Amino acid sequence: MTAAVPHGAAPPAGASATDDPVGSGLLTFAGVLLVLVGALNALDGISAIAGSHVFIGDAHFVFGDLLAWGWVMLVLAVAQLGAAYGVLALRAQWARWAGVVVLVLNAFAQMSFVPSYPVWSLTIIAIDVVAIYALTAYATPGRWGPARSEQPPAPGGDT
């Protein structure tokens, strides 16, 4: 049986980031959102490449056309699914940051895609923001400096 660790305290020696239920839950949530956004972007990209009629027909883009943005969405989808694999299966730190980069790029790409499908693009941007939060909110204990319990007390605090 494992003992409870107070919030902000360092985990016991030999424990990994996945032993922390809060961190593990946030990483799993972020990984699932990456899979969701990757799948939705794949559908979006394939629909745009195939010339589907779900998009606004007379949309004007700053640069490129619907076909070009379809390929951009498809490439982003592959990158998101790769980052999701790294987050869910490998629990790799690099995958978390790769996921953040890909999600930020996706949010910007979706802003460019708004003229062709506004509601869809804004929904994906909202999911991107939540996924970025989930990837960045939890810091692996021991990797980002001392735990809160190891920090000196604030001046004027209890001694």
What attributes characterize this protein structure?
DUF7144, membrane, transmembrane, about 160 residues, 4 helices, DUF7144 domain-containing protein, mainly alpha, elongated, transmembrane helix, about 60% helix
Q: Which stretches are poorly predicted, pLDDT < 50 over at least 5 residues? A: none
Radius of gyration: 20 Å
Tally of structural domains: 1
Helix-residue proportion: 55-70%
Report the total helices.
4
Structural class per helix/strand content? mainly alpha
Q: What is the helix/strand order? A: HHHH
**Number of extended strands:** 0
Shape: elongated
Largest sheet: none
Distance from first to last alpha carbon: 33 Å
Mean pLDDT: 81
- In terms of DSSP E residues, the strand content is under 5%
Keywords: Membrane, Transmembrane, Transmembrane helix
Protein name: DUF7144 domain-containing protein
Domain DUF7144: 27-138
Transmembrane segments: 26-56, 68-88, 95-113, 119-139
Question: Helices, strands, pairings?
Answer:
Blueprint: H1 21-50, H2 66-90, H3 93-113, H4 118-136
Protein name: DUF7144 domain-containing protein
Pfam families: DUF7144
Keywords: Membrane, Transmembrane, Transmembrane helix
